[in-house]
């Protein structure tokens, strides 16, 4: 892939290496993944090691009790893993409402769904790994046991979460969170050491049993017992019956490149619908009002469609093929005019997160994402284990007519999505942008920066971002060109400038040259991002 000289490229240079590369949001985790590569592990082993480390060195964004998705390129084929968990089997809209809730709560045991992270690690290791899981998880165990110094962006979000939980999570149910993440009555400060023996013990148990203890052993018993004690719905049966699912990735061809995502219940479909709509539109240059206007209009149309139709694939009334059809893309494309529109869902034809990317010298590549959602998740930590449980169930609707209505054993609309790019059947590489509903918007912007405007991976990530919020409301970064923001406002977009870049996603990219095997990586300036390579 040829890259033009572009002003954003001067901020930080892309990283280039040949034998292996790990890109993620924490330097210690990236280095742990590289160490595994140097010990003879492959890109899959490195991804697992990095992911496990991230639960320790970036607990503000993910944890052992979260969900995960992966796209894995091995021997010329792309594999998808959906390791998101369903709602408990004895939950229902009526049961939640009986407890005084008109919408799904954010915190506590009620929004907790079955965690998929440990199962994802074990499944990836079993199918594609070269090293034993016990060896791959050792770096994470050591960081949890011996501690590490808190990095700048991590410290900022940790402190913010502490303030929020101090105000909102005041009952006994949340004591484990404060004992684990604010052990001295306050969150660890930047540069201060933090450790968690419970976290280390749990990781060791997962490593020694290939995650069996988490779903059908001592850890499962502790989770279920805590849930019962605090009026939750999760049971040992819910955990014991869980298995991650291998799925067929979905894609659209965008100007000669195939862009791949995990199928629903993930929201990667939103990015593909937006790109499919943009396929029929001309984008002459990056820094133009016309380009940004078309991008924004296509994205918000895709998003309202995604919010209406995406849920557990077994519950979807509209198929992926319908939503990615040219007929539907044309219908949505025709709505894009000169002025900003108020988006409404179309009618198809009938028929808080960490991200990492790894690559090795054999050509294996992994796009991996895991999350607890909304930072630390539910605010619940199982005492003595370091297991912070996710709150994915918060996205369920308590309206029984809604596509994503809460049901027992159902998977909810999921925000976390890994991405992958190929061209003519060859891997270009993994990419991702973490951050709630920014993720498909970040995916589309990174793909357009790469394909339409020929930016190298670092420049593609460094470029100022925009984010559709709702209606005609668009948030732009403070670095976003002011004259373009003003021109967009004249087209009817309600532009707001954000001083904090934290809400615009945090991404990683690794591209591979198919002829030489040389790897080119970019990491995120909006977090403590790092690339480890050799």
Task: Describe what this molecule looks like in 3D.
This protein has 534 residues and is an alpha+beta fold. The chain has a domain of 271 residues. Helix content is 35%, strand content 19%. It is built from 19 helices and 21 strands. Helix 13 packs across helix 14 and helix 13 packs across helix 17. It is globular, with a radius of gyration of 22 Å.
Structural topology:
Blueprint: E1 15-17, E2 20-24, H1 27-38, H2 43-57, E3 67-74, E4 77-83, H3 93-98, H4 117-128, H5 133-136, H6 138-146, E5 148-149, H7 152-168, H8 175-181, E6 193-194, H9 197-209, H10 212-216, H11 218-229, H12 236-240, E7 245-247, E8 250-254, E9 257-261, H13 268-278, H14 289-309, H15 320-323, H16 326-333, E10 353-360, E11 365-371, E12 381-382, E13 387-388, E14 419-423, E15 426-434, H17 439-451, H18 457-462, E16 466-470, E17 473-477, H19 482-490, E18 494-498, E19 506-512, E20 519-522, E21 530-533
Parallel strand pairs: 17-18
Antiparallel strand pairs: 1-20, 2-10, 2-21, 3-4, 3-11, 4-7, 5-6, 8-9, 9-14, 10-11, 12-13, 14-15, 15-19, 16-17, 19-20
Helix pairs in contact: 1-2, 2-4, 2-6, 6-9, 13-14, 13-16, 13-17
Shape: globular
Radius of gyration: 22 Å
Number of extended strands? 21
* Major sheet summary line: 7 strands, antiparallel
Question: How much is the average pLDDT?
Answer: 94
Q: Order of strands across the biggest sheet?
A: 1-20-19-15-14-9-8
**Class derived from helix and strand content:** alpha+beta
Question: What percent strand?
Answer: 15-25%
Report the uncertain regions: 3-10
Number of helices, counting only DSSP H or I runs of 4 residues or more = 19
Work out the helicity level.
25-40%
Distance between the termini: 21 Å
